[in-house]
Here is the input.
Amino acid sequence: MLDLRGVTKHYRTRRGVVRAVESVSFAVRPKTTMALVGESGCGKTTIAKMILQLEKPTGGSISFEGRDIAALDATALKAYRRQVMAVFQDPYASLNPRLRVGTIIAEPILAHANPGRAAVERRVAEVLDVVGMPAGAARLYPHEFSGGQRQRIAIARALALRPRMMVLDEPVSALDVSIRAQVLNLLADIQQEFGLTYLIIAHDLALVEHFSDDVAVIYLGRVAEAGPTGEVFATPRHPYTQALLAAVPQPDPDHVLSETAAAGEIASALDPPAGCRFHPRCPLVVDRCRSEVPELRGAPHAASCHLVEV
Amino acid sequence: MVLAVENLQMHLHLKRGVLRAVDGISLAVGEGETLGLVGESGSGKTLTGLSLLRLLPKGSGRIVAGSIKLDGQELTTMSESAMARDIRGRRIAMIMQDPMTSLNPVFSIGDQVRNPLRNHDIARGAALRSAVVDVLTRVRIPSPSQRLGDYPHQFSGGQRQRIVAAMAIGCTPRLLVADEPTTALDVTIQVQIISLLRQIQSDTGAGIILITHDLGVAASLCRRIAVMYAGQIIETGPVRRIYRMPSHPYTQALLAAIPRLGDKRTRLQAIAGQPPSLIDPPSGCRFAARCPARMDKCAEAPPMVTLADGHSAACWKLA
Here is the structure.
């Protein structure tokens, strides 16, 4: 469905070149959920922005159903935009406080066509119903809703044009625990009902394990490990994935956290370490890691680590 | 007991009405003990923490009833100047969620760690400088003596939170209120701060109140847990009892609603609805509207039922 090949994004700044994303490749299969995980600053949101064409890659290609999205003409690009929608993290920032909910949801419809007032109103009521909100919500303003309800409204807006794919950037991390489950279940139901493909960006590993079919673990702009979610979580191959999993606090008082799996802190993308970007923090580092960039090997469950046997 | 709170009520007097933000909280923290105050946003956990320091929203916030005793000394009736001189930052210190907002960007970190030490007369002159270096060493800031003149933006997020912790522990407080100290941090950095809090506690014997919405973080740090819902503590007990034998339907629902590592792809158990408004809250059980075990009796306020040593829950089902 969606295919990234060697996608790279560099930003030129006064202090030098920020290597935000470096040669990232992965594919999202139709009607499945692919997750990108990693710590802040690892480049996962930059990848999402390039997919949404909010940023242009410095190198590599992104294709949707076999067509390079950088080469689309204006009409094809518009068609692409209605097929790939986004839901962002903060429903307080992503909904315009001055517009009524009905207007917010109708905006993408009107940006692409004008089917007439009655048809727009009907569609708004339909998608509100899909996300479990009453039709009357259309007349109210965002501030009259709680965080969970606002995220439902953001999802309704994304659904308005019947997209085929949704990019979900931390869709529940701004919500409370009891509300998160409601929104995640809603997203799962919608996916089933409409056959949607999801790309979810998240830092919560338990959520990713629960919600996705495939996963790519990103570290400092590179894919450290990728594969079917069940396998990656059950037998993580890359020392970074192992460190991440060991560091997640579990709701279990007898669980022992590993304090040593990843010492130190993530390096700057302005001056990423040579060789494997994880090597300064890696407990298993050998000489080769300091000079040679490891390739991502071993697909379908691939890792980019010199120490991994394929 | 380092801290004993009895029936604390803190109300916010707003234009819309009286918001019962903290509504009859009782809790206790012993020497070297960590109490987890767990709940969702709006449950009153942060305002409970701020009430202990009598840091209330100006104009609207008022402690209307109850008592707060620190080492036996009553704080609710203490004068404002005595609170500022002897309590805040001295005997009760606070670590806030976001180190970017708790550090002042225009002062060097040396200045900011020095201030509480100087204001509370902990040290002067050369001793003051060495105390600053010492406390920064304890929170594991690398080569602290060379970095006293550096500003917050020159440090990473994890290091900034360590500096905030240094400001809090410099005066060796009796009680540390840590409000979501790891929430803004990445997991690999979060682990480092959790281990720092453990170390601070074993070094100083301070009591810690950890305010968090993250049941994982609470489980890894706390000896006892108090679960808050809509301004009240609805269940409290030793950490193993709370996670293994949660008794209040809300605690049970909360634990069932979080995805866990190692779980297969199954449907999460969502809690329908949302918490009630604390302006004019329901007179009975505040969770009743969302509770799967609701009975007629829940229209009356439920009693706090003791289930085992130190474990109690406020629910009619258990009465």
